What we know:
alpha/beta, 2 domains, 9 helices
Amino acid sequence: MKKEDVPEIVVSRLPLYVQTLNQLLREGQSVVSSSELGERLKTTPSQIRRDLSYFGDFGKQGTGYEIILLMESLRRILNLNQIWQVVLVGVGHVGEALLNYDGFSRKGFEIIMAFDQSPKVIGKRFGTLAVKSVDELEAELSKRQVDIGAISVPAENAQEVCDRLVNSGVRAILNYAPIALEVPEGVQLATIDPVVKLQKMTYYLK
C-alpha cells in the first residue's frame, strides 16, 4: 500500500501506539490485546485493528499482539529506526526550551544546529552546540543533509525562514511560530501553538 493511501489520522495515531506499547514493556508485559490497547488509548478495539490493518497482519486471534514485534514494526513504519537530525531556527524562550529538552534524543531526534539573528544569542552554547548566525543558514545546511527543521522565530519572520529551510533541502517543518506557513507539495508541516489549543478549550468552559 502506498503511503498516500493511508489516512493522515491513522498515521497520527501510530506514535501513540508506540508510546503505549513502550509503557506496557516497562510494566513487564509481553503480549497485549486490542481490547487493552483500546482501553489504554480511550478508543475501540475495532479502531485499533482497522488502523493496524493498513500495514499488515500483526496479531493472532485469541492471543493478541507480541508487544516487541508490534512496536518494532510500527517504528519501522514511522521511520524511527534511525537518528533524525534537526536544525533549529530561533533561540528565544521556546528555542532554548527545545535545546534543553532531552526527550528528543531519547526518542531518536537530535538538534545538530541552531541559528538566531540576535548578537546576544549568537555564540551561546547549549552543551556542545553553539548558536550560529542565521546568515550562515544556507552555507551550513549545504555541508550536510538535514531533513527536519524547527522554527521558533517571530511570526513576521517565519515564512522567510521556512522558505530558506525548504530551499536548503529540509523536507519537514515543525513550526512554533503563531502563523500559518505555506510549504510546497512534498514537504511535511506541523504547527504547534498552545494558545490556539487553550482558546479551543475555553470555548467549552463556562
